Amino acid sequence: MGALPKKKVSSHRQGNRRRHHWLKLPQLMTCPTCGEKKRTHYVCPNCGTYKGRQVIDVSKRSRRQSQQQ
Question: What is the C-alpha separation between 44 and 60, in angstroms, rounded?
Answer without folding.
Answer: 15
